[in-house]
Queue: 3 jobs
Job 1
Amino acid sequence: MKAIGEALRGFLERRGAPERMRLVRLWENWDMVMGVDIAVLAYPLGHRKRILLVGAEDNMAMQDLTFLTPEILERVNAFMDDVSDGPYFERVEVHLLQRRTPLDEVRVTRGAPPPRVPPRPDNLGGLLGAFDPESPVARAYASYVRMFREIGDAAVKPGDAGRDGRDRRDGRDGPNGRK
């Protein structure tokens, strides 16, 4: 029986993970691989089979990169260091960026959204004595009331009555704004 690590490694290798990781390393190190002169003009856009896709900001840069494609190809293939089947990429295509995001740019990852505070019900706790204290419904309701007491004023909706019974917008009493 194989260890899970070995089975997972074999599965990922059959799916092409090592090749994709090498490409990720290329995108992450694009500036170093291209050098300062080429990196300011060339942006990595991806690949299609054995064709490297490079982006340019405008037509002038695109023209310069067209002349630099042999050097780009040489540098990228040297970085990829794949001599088993010949060069990793066979040719370079230069395209205008046109609002595409280059692969070498830093990606901003979104964190978890802040916890959502539910709105505080108007008659919270009014049913605490209405149920058999041993029933699951009474315990669930008591837990619900306790949750709102722990989060406090954060659960008050704008315009609804707060803990002191005053409307937060205009100072009138009660949830309906009665004086």
Job 2
Amino acid sequence: MASINYPYPDPKNDAEREANRQAEDDYERQEQEAADFLDWAEGLPTVAPELLLEQVRLDLATAGLHMAPPEPLADEEQGGVVVYLDDDRVVVDRLPQIRLDPAALGQAEADRADSAAGICCATVREAMDTALGTILTGFRYTTTRRPHSRLGHIIGQPPTTPDF
């Protein structure tokens, strides 16, 4: 339990003592509200992955992002944000548009990460991944990175907020 930060650590008169009592009351009230919130949140059911998937798609489209169609995930003509289920987890990633995709393929074939095309592709990929993470956080989703990959985001259950 954290200690109370009294406004007057060494009160010299009744007004200062009253201010300290008020600070202690406020602190106890905040502690009780936090405990009530945790009790309230424990009883909530988790959101079905399919509903969470649709909510994430809607939120990203609301943010103005181009949503790639869900199937197929590797359409050569289409770029944009993809949201899909993987083992009942909602995953958000980005498919490159066709003009950047050949640059990535050429980079992989030639094994030249320092080429202009490779640098462009890597820079755009990292910037878009960072932007996706920022937007998801702005919508209050908790995210983790995909295992074995530096890119893409796995969405956690949405936050719960009681109506106090």
Job 3
Amino acid sequence: MQLCNDTITLYNRRFDPEQDCDVYERTIIRGVHWFNSDATTVDSTGLKAANKVTIRIPVDADFGGKAYLPPKQYAAADDPAAAFTLAAGDLMVLGVGAEGLRPAAIHDTYSEAATVLQVTDNRRAPQAQHWKVVGA
């Protein structure tokens, strides 16, 4: 894919029964495309606007040696640090993000941060196989 020269940090959310809370596993992904746009709508309460982020992650991006697992397999993995997934509720940051941050701290620390809302798996495409991630 063209213009895939960005680096992102993915924070995968998973429940840790030992800590009895959600924890976030960090994965740095190099060779992606991050695009910001504004989304607006008008309803009965007036005009609403939000920042929309579209990220395209080619299958040949650099995942730091980690393997992709579908969300349910990732949740059940014995070693989640060896893998990553793409699921609604995960967090993404443009650039290399710090390790061990809580979700609120991620949005407070980074101006280019998004919560994943939707993931489209385009790996079956004959060319330019990738995942499309939409967030806000």
